[in-house]
Amino acid sequence: MFTLYVKTKNFHWHMSGKHFRDYHLLLDEHATQIFAMTDDIAERARKIGGKTLRSISDISRHQRLKDNNAEFVAPQDMMVELRGDNQQLTRELRSTHELCEEHDDVATASLIENWIDETERRTWFLSEIVAER
Length: 133
Known about the structure:
Elements: H1 2-13, H2 20-47, H3 56-62, H4 75-102, H5 106-130
């Protein structure tokens, strides 16, 4: 989540082009939503006896999404990349949901269902932008 948050903010900060305002605002909205999920995830992990991330280096050891450190990324390429990252996140959330069901963890499964819905909505918006090519 933190990797997707930082990448989304990175693209938000470095947006350019004719759709600057719309894309800039959309990515800010997405980043806010993603960041809110991080606290819920950490608190749920602690409630069930798990551990949480402790530092930037801890995040980098656990991240599954690739960073993008390019000096310039074209707006459409940003949207394609974020769409793929959100699609990957949806797959991982679904897998985690299955694990929760196996362990009868209905509270976490319920949260994940909302996160899947939010992630699918972000993917939908990004897909519509990518389709404009």
